[in-house]
Structures are given as C-alpha cells and as structure tokens.
Design goal:
This protein is α+β, with helices and mostly antiparallel strands. It has eleven helices and twelve strands. Strands 1, 2, 3, 4, 5, 6, 7 and 12 form an eight-stranded mixed β-sheet that branches. It has a four-stranded antiparallel β-sheet with strand order 9-10-8-11.
Length: 433
Amino acid sequence: MRTGPSSPATVRIRTVVMQEGLNAFGPDQPALTEADPHTFIKWMRAPGRVNIIGDHTDYNQGLCLPTTLDHDCIVAYRARHDQRVRIRTIDAVGRRDDNAYAHDADGPDTPGTIPDTSNNAAPPPAILRTASGDPRDDRATSTGEWWSLAQGVMDELSSRGHVGGVDLICSSEIPIGSGLSSSAAFSVAITLAMADAFGAELAKIDIAHIARDAERRARGLPVGILDPYAITYGMDGYALLLDCRSEQSRPIAIPSGLSFALIDSGVPHNLEHSEYALRAEQCARAAERLGVESLRDATTETAADDPFARHVVSENARVASAADALETGNVMRLAALMQASHESLRDDFDVSTPELDDLVARLLSNGALAARITGAGFGGAVLALIEGGMSQVQSITLGAVAGYEGTHGRMAKIWPVLPADGARPFDPMKPRT
C-alpha cells in the first residue's frame, strides 16, 4: 500500500526537509536551535474517500457507504514557542489552478507577492497568524483553496478555544477534481496537526466537525459530514455504513475476491462552479414542502412527484440494502443497487455528464458488474464493481477506457481502490504493517 511512510507525498516532504533542513519550514524565530524540542517534526496522514453508494444523502441526514483510499494527504509539522502559524505546500493540494502564495514577513521576499517558481522550487510558507497571535489576511494574493482551508481550520480551532503556533509542510497524492475528497483530506490532516501542536485533545467526531466546518467557512458550500467522517474513521479493508443524522457508523468488511476501481473522467469536479449548492437548496425546499425536517423523513409515497426527494429516499433505501448485500456476500444484489444508484443520480438528481455516462456504459460492456458516479457528480470519477483481483481490474478498466480519449478529448485515469486506515499520526521511518 501507498499510505504513510510508503506515500509518494511523504517522500516529497522528506526530500525537501533533507535538502533545506529546518529552514524548510521557513525563516525561524530567533534562538531556535536543532537541539530545541520545538524543532521535533511530527507527521500526519489523511486518506482520500470513495463512496460505494449513497451520494447527496449526507446533507439530507441520510445514509452513506464510504470507504477510504490508499492515497494520502501528508502533513509534516512542528510546534512553535509563539502563536505564529505558517503553512507551506510543495505541490497542488487545492484547486487545479492553485498557484498563488503569501509570504512570511520574516523572510527575504516582499509580503503579499507571488514567488517565482519557474525553477520548480517548492514555494515559501504562507503566514496564517503572526507570532503575537494577530490574524494575517493575505487573501488578495493567496487565492488558492489550500490556503483558505488551512485558515478555516485555524479559525474553527480558535473559536473552540484552541490556539498556539505551528509550522506545517503539506503534500498530497489524492487526485484533485476527481470527487475523491482531496480538500476534505487536507482539512482533516491540518486539523489533526494543528490540534496536536496546540495541545488540544479532540475526539474523532470533533476532528470531523472541525474539518467540515472549515470547508463550509472556506468554500461557502453546505458540505455534509460524509467526507471528513469517512476520512477520520476509515478502516483498512472495510466500508462504513454511516448514518449522517446520528453520526454513528458500523464497519462492514469488503469480501475478498471483490474489487473496486475508480476511473477519472477528466471532467473537473469543482463544487464551487457546479450546482452542488443549488441541489442542497432544492432538497431543503422539498423537505419544507413535504413538512419534514429533512428528506431523511420523507417516504416513497410523499416523494414520488419530486425527483430530488425521490432520489434521496430511494438512495437511502439502496444504501441500507447495499450494506446488507456486502455483508452477506450477495454480489449481484450489490451490483444491481449500485446501477440503480447511478440511474437515479443521472435521471432524478441530474448530476451526471455525457462523459460519466459513457464511462459507465464502457465499463459494463467490458465486464464490470456495476458502474456508477461516485461523489457529488458534475464531473469527477465513476466507481466500477469488479469480480476478481487486480488482473481482472486491469483488463476491464483498460478495455473500458480504450477509445475514450478519442471520443471526448479527455484522458481517463484509473486507480484500483485499496481501502486504507483513516487519518492518524505515523512515523515515516517505520514501514507500514
């Protein structure tokens, strides 16, 4: 597996630290030496998330069945004596066009300017809070999503009474714009690192809430609990049956001999520029018309005339049945439910694209048991259910993407799904067991 010490993102950060020493974290405060305990570097990892079934149900207090990926967002960090918070990213962890940075006022660059990265050097750190604890707002030049997400995490921790200083370096190998929760993984990893550096002891559900609220604050989207919960609670080899109303989950083992694969359509999944927020609003209005707190409380009969309500009600039922099918090894039942989910997302919830539908058709014709949109839709990836191991995954997915680029002018990318443990600290010097 590629998680933790084996992650390419870990290798990238270790390379920068080895090349630059402690200066990798930015120009330091006076009198800090390598013997100082505050120079001790710690590490956090947070995986990506794929939803087997149950999309657009989380913000409707419904059911979901996610698992986690063996692709990580990695954060190396060290606590500070003061309240300064600095963050440095050595590759893209936010939007695809993320290329703007703010500078440390203590460094050699002019504050608020955009660095010259023509030599492919890692950009310098951005300040989120000064040594005296004052907020540093460089949003005029720091427009990248990674910066605003980190700012959101810091603000959420501060609102809960947790403050302190920390230097962070981040790298991620979770595909961006594919609907695999790259931004949620970043938010969870940053939350864990900041909380540890600030001395805050938080329960897992608090980590998930802070990461969710940071995304809401930074992105202005009504995101639900699904992504940060799955990333925080994920278990190697398991899916989670998650109830988004009670915020309780139950692990369900993924049977051996059953494989999942992701195929990125090449259509960027950007929720800010999609109708994601509109769908959440349409669901809220539907619940109000039906006289219920949320669409979780609607019934098949009351939702029959509203396509958005109809999807949520039927998807909740499919999730419950899919969890039972996965648990009992009823593969054909699981396949039928996944296919029905895609059709509902396409026809009732209207979040598919021609590219996604074509990939689904190609996967089915090449031998996949099922294929469906995963994530919010509006681009991103599809998830294929395949009977067999990696050789079957390779044969079916490569056959499916053959000719796709010629038809759509986009490159499809393939990732086998290997469920991994949820977010946690790790030692980069110790191999994963």
